[in-house]
Amino acid sequence: MKLSKIRALSLLLICCSTTAVAQISYTAADSCRIVDILQKSDRCSTTDIATQFIGLPYIAGTLDKENNERLTVNIREFDCTTFVEQIAAITITANNKGESFEEFCCTLNKLRYRNGQCNGYCDRLHYISQWIEQGERIGLLYEVKGCAHKATQRLNLNFMSRHPDSYRQLKENPSLVKEIKKGEQPFGNISIEYIPKSLLNGSPQELSIADGDILAIVTAIEGLDVSHVGFALWQEGTLHLIHASSGKGETIIDEQPLFDYMKNKKNNLGVRVFRIK
Q: For 82, phi and psi rounded to 5 degrees?
């Protein structure tokens, strides 16, 4: 099927290997732009891809607008998670020599949904720790653990099940809370390591952080693991964040060094670092 004939916001059934992607929401412009990037990706790094989307609007809850959960591709506006997810999916697809929109969708589905199956809201990996665990398990990502100076946190994911009124789908469908809690349980009382924010003025070698690494900001908020995500970018030896910023209302290369961005935010403890394989 030629891209020029793809109808905006159409629904497809796309199958690749063991993953079936049904009901995909997208626009023809989105699919064409993704294919264009993939076809030029031999000249692009993760940061090159991410910076192509600088200046696009930040919109909270971009996956929660519809009542029926389906794979949503939207590269016209982002929240912090959908920015990282979709840029990572483009990068992974490119690394695998993929050049089609269908291959991108299969990759995104594997990142976003439990076992790559989108059958409803509870299949979405709502916590970054869930997202990363699956990505590592299926060989798309890995956690970087080279920094010698790390702190530990005892993690106990339960924020969604304890605050269902904060989520429209859970508030409107209380029966879903049980399923959300089931997904949280494997992440109860586990220990994770992170780089404390006091060390984020170190060098690339000291921190073992490279351009394009995914940086997940560890939070002290009870029941949560991460409060924000973005990509690492070194500028003149200083670590910065490429991210969808709620404060600026758009995707940006943050002018503040990450050390300064985090130092006065008391709930920001540090960062976990993940790298695309």
A: -70, -30
Residues 110 and 72 in one domain: yes
The answer for residues whose C-beta is within 8 angstroms of residue 177's C-beta and 6 or more apart is: 160, 161, 164, 170
Distances in Å between the Cα of 260 and the Cα atoms of 41, 263, 265, 273 are 33, 5, 10, 18
User: What is the identity of the amino acid at 37?
Assistant: I
Given 3-state DSSP classes, what are the helix, strand and coil percentages for the chain, each rounded to the nearest 5? 40, 25, 35
* Rounded Cα distance, 73 and 63, in Å: 9
Say if CB 262 and CB 268 are below 8 A apart.
Answer: yes
Together in a domain, 119 and 185? no
Q: Which domain holds residue 152?
A: 142-276
Using the 3D structure, point to which of 124, 140, 156 is the last residue of a domain.
140
Q: How far apart are CA 73 and CA 103, in angstroms?
A: 13
Looking at the fold, whether 58 and 162 belong to one and the same domain comes out as no
Token pair listed for 164: 């269902």
pLDDT tens across 48-107, in order?
999 999 999 999 999 998 889 999 999 999 999 999 999 999 999 999 999 999 999 999
CA count, 13 A, side-chain hemisphere, 64: 14
Record the pTM.
0.92
Specify the pairing of strand 24-25 against strand 188-196: unpaired
